[in-house]
Amino acid sequence: DVKVTQSSRYLVKRTGEKVFLECVQDMDHENMFWYRQDPGLGLRLIYFSYDVKMKEKGDIPEGYSVSREKKERFSLILESASTNQTSMYLCASSFTRSTDTQYFGPGTRLTVL
Amino acid sequence: SQQGEEDPQALSIQEGENATMNCSYKTSINNLQWYRQNSGRGLVHLILIRSNEREKHSGRLRVTLDTSKKSSSLLITASRAADTASYFCATDAAYGQNFVFGPGTRLSVLP
Fold first, then answer.
1. What is the DSSP letter of B27?
2. Do A97 and B41 touch (CB under 8 A)?
3. Which pLDDT score, from 0 to 100, does residue B99 have?
């Protein structure tokens, strides 16, 4: 079974702090994704990566950056956390680009005070 | 506006009843997928239907796709309390790069 893990289930940070969310997948998937999920808005794509050291902006990249130094690991970085970044963050991976199933991690609920 | 939108937003039924959720989308697609999310957890893939398919079954799940109406439905038969979750459709736009998820339908199955 594919396993996607995220570094924390719950995280509380203060405004202005630098926040790292890490995601690791164990199925040698090419593609990895970061979403945020807010009530009534569904999942919105922040960034995605199709290869090591490669990244592309999703629908809402402002205020975020990402890093993919190794194939299995995809990190989401909030350079200076703000209260409007309080959300559930979901990482996913997939084998092919767009038409394949995405496998999700359990999510990180981030609260920025 | 979102590519996929589920309807209804929330649904409450008794155990043993059938549950039907609908998804509408705006542009041509390659495929459409349904995912389930238990409270506070990640999403789990349920079923994928391609644009050239009209109906697909998986256990108690039945998915239909009507490309002329740009809509899909997910039917869960003989529902169980364990089916209580949010259900999302995700569309892979024919000319896009990534999935677009709708806001979801929250299903409550009462024992």
1. S
2. no
3. 78
Burial, A4: exposed, middle or buried (Cβ in 10 Å; 0-12, 13-18, 19+)? buried
The proportion of chain B whose per-residue pLDDT surpasses 90, expressed as a percent, equals: 68
Per-residue pLDDT of A55-82, as tens digits, reads 999 889 999 999 999 999 999 999 999 9
The pLDDT tens digits for B34-71 are: 999 998 888 999 999 999 999 999 999 999 999 999 99
Substitution target in A21, A55, A99 with the highest count of B β-carbons within 10 Å is A99
Q: Which tokens hold the place of A17?
A: 């702090």
pLDDT the model gives residue B2: 41
Contacts of A97 in chain B (CB under 8 A): 97
Tell me, letter by letter, the H, E, C secondary structure of A42-80.
Answer: EEEEEEEECCCCCCEECCCCCCCEEEEEECCEEEEEECC
B41/B63 Cα distance (integer angstroms): 23
Minimum-distance CB partner of A102 among B30, B45, B97: B45
